[in-house]
Amino acid sequence: MDFHSLCVMGLGYIGLPTASTFATHGMQVIGVDVNRRVVDVLRNGEIHIQEPGLRTLVQAAFRSGNLRVSDRAETAEAYILAVPTPIGDDKRADLSYVRAAAASIVPVLRPGALVVLESTSPPRTTVDILAPILQGSGLRAGEDFYLAYTPERVLPGQILRELIDNARVIGGVNPASAEAGRDLYAVFVKGEIILTDATTAEFVKLMENTYRDANIALANEFARLSERLGVDVWEAIDLANRHPRVSVLRPGPGVGGHCISVDPWFLVEAAPDLSPLIRQARLVNDGQPAWLVGQMEKAVGPLAGKTIAALGLAYKQDVDDLRESPAIEVVRLLVARGAQVRTYEPVAPSAAVEGAEAATSIEQALSGAEALVLLVDHQALRSLDPVVAGRSMKSRVAFDARGALPRAAWKTAGFQLHVLGAGEGNG
Ligand code: SAJ
Q: Rounded distance, CA 416 to CA 371, Å?
């Protein structure tokens, strides 16, 4: 099939790059977001999210004349749904955005169109939830219109390259739908495109992020064990990873972002009796901020009244995304312990946590601090000069929750340095 027009529902971290990339590859694209502010920002030539290269791409898309933005769906040959699928406090998927986006397509859906869901979703969402809503149009999925699921697999920070280069799994409600999906994405995808059924494609996505979550949980548990056993986990991981079939990930303050800390719950929700390991991995990673704060208390005593500089709030290095960030959870716990916390987030300078003071510069964050804690290994923080940092602080105490600070330099600068997972006598 040849597609000329596309309607992308949801202009966030996935929808905006996807819509723009299709537009720069010659498709007529209408990008839709129900948030009026997002539409206005984009119409003013700005972008509302940070991602390397995105501004240039979006500007090129607008300049090509192929991209328009709106707050309502329009008739097109193909639709992509890239709306959020968050979890509630009960750890169950909230599909309200998917339902609403699907319902808004119903009046404009025409025979022969293709609808693709990209949002990470619980298994069977495409078949059991999306298809019935779209069939409210009177058209039948797989017969009168094509319906497919394809997971986005791009890594925040490298979205634009991975969007094009990564392999794509496309699952259809029938083979013709998967083939239609392939024809659409072949417009720009250079990676291999592999066809399957919709539920398998949904499951593959959840497996990938669950695999990573479980492996990070393992690294975090290794860090806890190392502290107890007097082993330096960083050295131990380096040595274990010389084994040809071992690749232990990095321990840290926990797992954040809107993907890995969320998606495994979709599998737990689907079959709690069959997923104890997946659930436990989530609990280990969610418990990591409290573990870190506990270790800080062990090292320096009660935190109440202590002035602590918390460096980094994003969920991982060199992104501005604060969603589900374990760094924010650590700050909350420090505040709850009565510490005077000053935060500094170089990539998202306006980021703030209730109860903590948001510093606008690293100097301001460190000035008079009795300890610092490195929570995100942003390039700008890794390269912090310990001599300069020590000069503005009241006491030279540093906690490194990412194993990212050059230890010798910090110790030479007179710092008492505590590294997560570096057992007593090895730090
Ligand atoms: N983290 C660790 N230790 C590690 C690796 C990561 O503590 O060794 C932490 C990070 O600091 C962060 C969290 O895990 O808080 C997640 O970061 P990430 O870089 O592992 O993954 P995301 O959430 O940015 O992107 C993931 C990717 N999935 C996989 O690698 C399997 C990406 O390909 C997906 O497209 C994305 O989720 C998504 O949108 O689902």
A: 9
Q: For the stretch 86-118, what's the b/e string if a residue is b when 16 or more beta carbons lie within 10 angstroms of its beta carbon?
A: ebeeeeebebebbeebbebbeeebeeebbbbbb
The alpha carbon of 260 and the centre of ligand 1 are apart by a number of angstroms equal to: 6
Q: Whose CA is nearest to atom 28 of ligand 1?
A: 209
The beta-carbon contacts of 415-421 under 8 Å, at least 24 apart in sequence, are 415/386, 415/390, 418/295, 418/296, 418/299, 419/232, 419/234, 420/223, 420/233, 420/251, 420/252, 420/253, 420/292, 420/295, 421/222, 421/223, 421/224, 421/226, 421/227, 421/232, 421/233, 421/234, 421/251
Query: Taking the complete model, does pTM exceed 0.85, yes or no?
Result: yes
Distance CA 280, CA 206 (A): 16
Q: Check if 259 is active-site.
A: yes
Q: What is the pLDDT of residues 168-198, one digit of tens each?
A: 999 999 999 999 999 999 999 999 999 999 9
Q: Nearest to residue 326, comparing CAs of 372, 379, 261, 420?
A: 261
Of the candidates 305, 304, 326, the residue with the CA atom closest to the CA atom of residue 257: 326
Q: Please give the domain boundaries of the chain with CATH numbers for all domains.
A: 5-191 (3.40.50.720), 206-285 (1.10.1040.10), 286-419 (3.40.50.720)
SS3 258: coil
Ligand 1 atom closest to residue 120's alpha carbon, by position in its atom list: 40
- Report the alpha-carbon distance of residue 67 to residue 61 in Å, rounded: 6
